[in-house]
Amino acid sequence: xxxxxxxxxxxxxxxxxxxxxxxxxxxxxxxxxxKTSASGVCHSDLHFMEGKWMYPLPAVLGHESAGVVVxxxxxxxxxxxxxxxxxxxVQSCGKCDRCITGRPNLCSDTQSQQRMDRLKINGAPSxxxxxxxxxxxxxxxxxxxCVHVPDAVPMEVAxxxxxxxxxxxxxxxxxxxxxxxxTVAVVGCGGVGLNIIQGAALAGxxxxxxxxxxxxxxxxxxxxxxxxxxxxxxxxxxxxVQAMTGGGVDYAFEAIGLMKTAQQCFEMARRxxxxxxxxxxxxxxxxxxPNAGISFLGEKGIIGSLYGSTRQAYDMPWLMELYRxxxxxxxxxxxxxxxxxxxxxxxxxxKGGEVNRSVIVFN
Length: 363
Ligand SMILES: [Zn+2]
Ligand SMILES: [Zn+2]
Prior knowledge:
There is one protein chain. The chain contains eleven helices and 17 strands. By secondary structure, it is an alpha/beta fold. The model has no long low-confidence stretch (mean pLDDT about 95). The strands form three sheets. Strands 3, 4, 5, 8, 9, 16 and 17 form a seven-stranded mixed β-sheet that branches. The protein has a six-stranded parallel β-sheet with strand order 12-11-10-13-14-15, with helices on both faces. One zinc ion (ZN) binds near residues 93, 98, 108 and 109.
């Protein structure tokens, strides 16, 4: 019996999401059906809504989520009915060369790619966004995407571990493996940027320079551990970061998804330093890097960070444990709560730069 779920559907670029019923198949081998508890309102979904990234439409977006297991398919042993889970948006196979060499976020055989017709919108098969389609009150996911949530962690907090916390903290601890005493700049202080900042503080960065154009974002950055702030609306941000650090930082993180700020991050990196691209740069555009920086004059680098180089079954439990010990701020990330029916209002607030993070809460 298929499950009828209430969902927010995107029919076209720059159109409001429509709330309607969709159909989800029963869980097959290795799959899990969850009742959604909370889904974060992440900027990455907005890139698809605005057409900066393409996706077959209509679609149910959403990729930062936690829920309770209501049904399991054959062969599922890592979770059982009633378990509270955070859902990772990569579902690594555990067998390919990327997985067995410790980089499951780059799995070349993700199960989400194999499960393209298990969700139906108006009776027509649709691909599950990020293997989950989290803007719905039920989700059919790969069992390998599910990570247990301890009792001490609220589900809305667990949802944020599923994207912004993992992506931000992991960019520091996993992707670049920051050394104690190194210096960082973080360009863009939204949900992901704030987590890069607190990840850098946890990892022992000596200077954490937050760059944004909004004073409310810079104030949040200071709360999350930024040692210095640069208001990019007032003067040249690159020159300010270079002046503060005597030539640049070890790592400059791009956390917005703009070509201009990606270029700036490369310029903010000191000789031997790196620009770390965490934001989703527009899919079709190309970055231009000055040869003088990358060759023998600079030995600088540029590196992408996908999902904080997550190994979800290992990383998400320690992130939630640090939250329990109050060493990671996650409650403070949540600015507003909305119902699914209010999702378009939530996205308007995100576009307006009003919030750190909003969460859609399901009852
Ligand atoms: Zn996200
Ligand atoms: Zn794999």
